[in-house]
Amino acid sequence: MPRIPLTWLGEHVELPSTASALEVATDLSRLGLEEEAIFGAQVTGPLVVGRVLELVKEPQKNGKTINWVRVDVGPEHNEDADDPKDPQPGEERPSRGIICGAHNFVEGDLVVVSLPGTVLPGDFAIAARKTYGHTSDGMICSGEELGLGPDPEGEDGIIVLGRGHATGLAAEPGDDAIALLGLADEVVEINVTPDRGYCFSMRGVAREYSHATGAAYTDPAATVETTAQAGGEVGVRLEDEAGCRRFVALGVTGVDPAAQTPRWMARRLTLAGMRPISLIVDVTNYVMLDLGQPLHAYDAAKLEGPITVRRARTGETLTTLDDVTRTLDPADLLITDAGGAGDRVLGLAGVMGGEDTEVSGTTTDIVLEAATFDPVTVARTARRHRLPSEASKRFERGVDPQLPLIAAHRAAQLIVEHGGGQVSAHVTDEGSVTAPAPVVIGLRDAERVVGIAYTDAQVIDSLEAIGCTVEREGEDALRVTPPSWRPDLTIREDLVEEIARLVGYAEIPSELPTAPGGRGLTVAQRARRAARRALAEAGLTEVNSAPFVAPSIHDALRYETGDARRDAVRVLNPLAEDEPLLRTALLQSLLPVAKRNLGRGEESVAIFQRGSVFLASEAAMAAPVPAPAERPSEAELAEIEAALPAQTTALAAVLGGASGPDSWQGDPGPWGWADAFEMARRAAAAVGAALEVRQIERAPFHPGRAGELRVLAADGESIVVGAAGELHPSVLKEFSLPARTAAFELDLEAVIAAAPAVVRAEPVPTYPPAKEDFAFVVEDSVPASAVEAAILVGAGDLAESVHLFDVFTGEQIGEGKKSLAYAVKLRSPEATLTAEQIGATRTGIIAAVESAVGGVLRA
Predict the structure, then answer these.
(1) Distances (CA, A) of 526 to 210, 281, 477, 529, 652
(2) Which of 591, 554, 588, 560 is nearest to 703 (CA)?
(3) Which of the two residues, 818 and 183, has the higher pLDDT score?
(4) 261, 181, 180, 185: which is closest to 10 by C-alpha?
(5) What is the 3-state secondary structure of 493-546?
(6) Exposure string (b/e) for 558-578, b if CB count within 10 Å is 16 or more?
(7) 306 dihedral zone (left: phi>0; alpha: psi -120 to 50; beta)
(8) How many Å apart are CA 284 and CA 410, to the nearest integer?
(9) Which spans does this entry mark as compositional bias, Basic and acidic residues (predicted)?
């Protein structure tokens, strides 16, 4: 994220003298440049100018010589904490005593003094302290201690503002040194969206601040003089013009290798988040931050022209400036020359240079590179080599193609100004840049898209303010040519967004839509919520798992060959390479969630989920890819719809381990297969449907402890809507689940469709019920639901409820038979049932079961 020092920003746009970082951040946020952070002044407290009045050198026993210095820091601050004697009436204390270890100053010099209470960079607080037999009442500061970098004159030690009494400096002892040295600079860090790459520069942010406030803006690129003539000494060949559209090379000779970066530049680089290195490198970084054009400097003595821009060859390597040797990819764009064996790689274009031609402490002649690289190529190279850089951040977002020549000259001028030397009279400028394509926009288009009325003047002024050339295209349209620094403006909607942004997002009213009366949740929506609420009220926890599964899940759940649940849809661009399939059953993703929870320390699991499952269509086909230029035709939409997998909503739960917490009353019982059936019934009952259970063998359930779940459809047909029971032991082992873990899965949409559309109100019973228990011996093949149906027929209108509470098999019953025990509740709405009525009903139930399924009442 770019950091914007306010004093630097103020060079390009008129800032109010009282503007704070918060105010600037607020103004920028109105145009979409969100504040990321605000950094206040790094130095606070009494930092003042002082004059050295007396300097006494005191050798120490450790061989070190320190200076005991008397410093005049102005009448307001002159207090001598080292002098123990009481002052006489009328006597003044004209100076402070300070211990200093530096030796690059003399009596009469003006220095920078941090008095007690000052806080320096790094949260270093200054206080009076006793040392070397004195009380040092402050500190005489160096550039490093103030965050200004080394002395530009190359001297080690403290900052000397002026030598002797005749300094010529407009500063007196006691003056505020924070303002004098620019140490009160505040910094705003902003968040730049990928389409606004021009805001990775002071030039771009200053322009945006001007748009936000109307402040006068001066384009720094317009003030640079390009003095060199075309036809430079450095040859350049562009073998890949798609990757590099323009390449500028400008030479500078005779640079002083010992020249230091000026303090103001080093300070600005530091505030912007970059570390000062050397004059040449710092200048290229400074121009990049200021104008937005990345630059690279080559040591001309190490360069053997011509420079060639091409793609990498298989097997080529490059040692980049971070001292890492990288194997190059054929898609990488390279800068090369004729050095070494005749074709040497100099750097990854737009990302990072190589160490062979880097500038050093002995470099006197340089070649400055400023180019326009393809954003996609740079972005892919930076990611391929995991090598993000300040240059790649800008190139991959788009750099103004008109900047290379201007930026190269600006950097050359700064180097000559502070390091001597001479700019070459000729410059190499290869390649060409096409002008931005014009976009036609109607004068009323912004109003139609945004929803508020913009005047013609607002539309035209906004587009011209961002640098567009606007021409009339008939009465109601404009022909708009975007500026070179806005490669993101390519369609009409881009221009509409700029109009809305510059006029002000605050002008767009916030109006909540009014919901039409008489509408609410649909029947299906209410049913889905009711099913989930029923399970949550029963103590289960709802979870949400992604619908993507691994191919191995089908084997883990013991699906047989040919099972329809193996026909899963494969995603072409999965989130994870090991989970490319869409689930065909909800337990495929719910069981891994249960395993994960148990692996994180849970001792039991009781979870459920409502989610989509996807079934491959019988006639699987590839969906067509329509052209992006226009809306797909109805035929294309129909083909896309036909290619989609069948999708339904399922409800599933997994129950394992203890059914509740331990207590003094004893251990809670474990979840079991009966609980899975009960939870499935609860969910169906909340929807308004009743489940019928039939024994079945179906993966992933235990073959003898599973049941098929059915509902009675509106047409009277019994349809399968799911299964429940205890999970197979091998499945329990595969997912590390507790013994006897159970589960169920329902096709929730089918259950909702089978529920009656009309909800009947049940009358409140007035008379007491009669309870009767029955145990019928039937064949193993007879489902319990068939016996229940016969009981209801035999009881007639007196039947209120029938509940299966026991199933028994054994030698007492006989081979191939089972005993089903039911609790039957009888009630009359008219009167209390008599013994005769109960007995007659009991006889009718026994007869009905015997007639329907051959059941015999167990003695």
Answers:
(1) 54, 67, 50, 5, 18
(2) 560
(3) 818
(4) 185
(5) HHHHHHHHHHHCHHHCCCCCCCCCCCCCCCHHHHHHHHHHHHHHHCCCEECCCC
(6) bbeeeeebbebbeeeeeeeee
(7) beta
(8) 9
(9) 74-95
Question: Which tokens hold the place of 222?
Answer: 């317009």
Span 45-62, pLDDT tens digits: 889 999 999 898 998 888
Residues 6+ apart with CB under 8 A from 787: 776, 778, 820, 822, 849, 852, 853, 855
> In the chain, what is the straight-line distance between the N-terminal and C-terminal CA atoms, in Å?
85
pTM: 0.62
- CA–CA separation, 393 vs 403, rounded Å? 16
pLDDT tens track for 280-302: 999 999 999 999 999 999 999 99
- Neighbouring residues of 755: CB distance < 8 A, sequence distance ≥ 6: 527, 687, 688, 689
Q: Please enumerate, by residue number, every residue annotated as part of a binding site.
A: 488, 494, 497-498
Which pLDDT score, from 0 to 100, does residue 280 have?
Answer: 95
What pLDDT, on a 0 to 100 scale, did the predictor assign at position 89? 42
| HSE-up (13 A, CA, CB side) for residue 494 | 16
Average pLDDT over residues 828-841: 93
Closest CA to 207 of 466, 439, 432, 420: 466
Domains identified in the chain and CATH numbers: 3-41+185-218 (3.30.56.10), 47-181 (2.40.50.140), 229-431 (3.50.40.10), 439-503 (3.30.56.10), 523-754 (3.30.930.10), 770-857 (3.30.70.380)
**Residue 847 in this model has a pLDDT that exceeds 60:** yes
Cα angle 292-298-299, degrees, rounded to a multiple of 5? 145
Q: Max CA-CA distance within the chain?
A: 130
pLDDT digits (tens, 9 = 90+) for 428-452: 999 988 889 999 999 999 999 998 9
CA distance 198 to 206: 11
For 749-789, the pLDDT digits (tens) are 999 999 887 767 778 889 999 999 999 999 988 888 889 98
